[in-house]
Amino acid sequence: MDLVRPAGTPVDRPGLDGVVERRFGLVVMGDVRIEVRAALPEVRFTELTADRLTYAPARIMVAGTAVNLARRATGYFRRIAVTGKIGDDDFTPLIRRELRRLGVRDLLRAEPGAANAVSVMLRDRATADGPGVRLLVAEEHAPSRRLTEADVRRAAGEIRRADVLFTDGYSLLSPISAAALRRAAAIARRAGTLVAFDVVPHDVDARLPAAEVTPVLELADIVITEAATVARLLGRPAPVEGGEVRELLPALDALVPGRPLWLLRFGPGCLERVLAHQRGRLELEYATGYGEGVERAGFGDRLTAGELYWWLSARSG
Asked: Which residues form the Carbohydrate kinase PfkB domain (predicted)?
């Protein structure tokens, strides 16, 4: 994807709150699960030395990487579809109902007899140093890990019609879903649909060798990553400042042939700034607006949705 640098930044315009005129088609492939979230205003994890009962606001919601992004993308994209594999239990109608509520096309495959995956997100008490520590407990053997190439082929028509296919690194944690990811990317590339890849989990370097991640980077037109994550994949220290991030660029260009657009997130919280880089064509650094007092949950998805819309607009003129 060759680009000419647009004026401004995606945070200036369209911004992180959606647009008046939605455009483009997006297919999101990823994890779908039920999540319980709670913030613990009276508890610090480091203070716990015994069992503890605490009362705090808690909610249950349909989440997972695919739904979380699709929910934010509805403010930008005219057509959105979610593809993946879910379970077949009492939560399944809830998941499908949420996609209908969002106006998102449901391309999910239900695995007969399988339970839907559940995750629990807890955030402890904020301090003067930050918003508190997040503990995310995720069921490992989720149905999404068993998404097959045959499942992806059933969504091929929607992928071909889309402007961008969005995928993420959780699919790489299973050989079955990893093959499905590669198949989806191949379908997209043959059709001229852009492929965006989010390098998660953020500790993917501790879970997979770089040799298993790099082939997927080679299929991507847009790579979204914390600079610290990709630095560790390269065996380098995690950068914090913009100058340190720029020192990564030659290594990234050597790592992946072609000219993907890298969106490298960095800063004290790994989310305050972005360095956009495409070999030989553009380099752009901008602030995201994230900082003290800004809710972190969902911010990355808001940023990603706005960025995808902005870069697609730049590509189409």
From this structure: 62-253
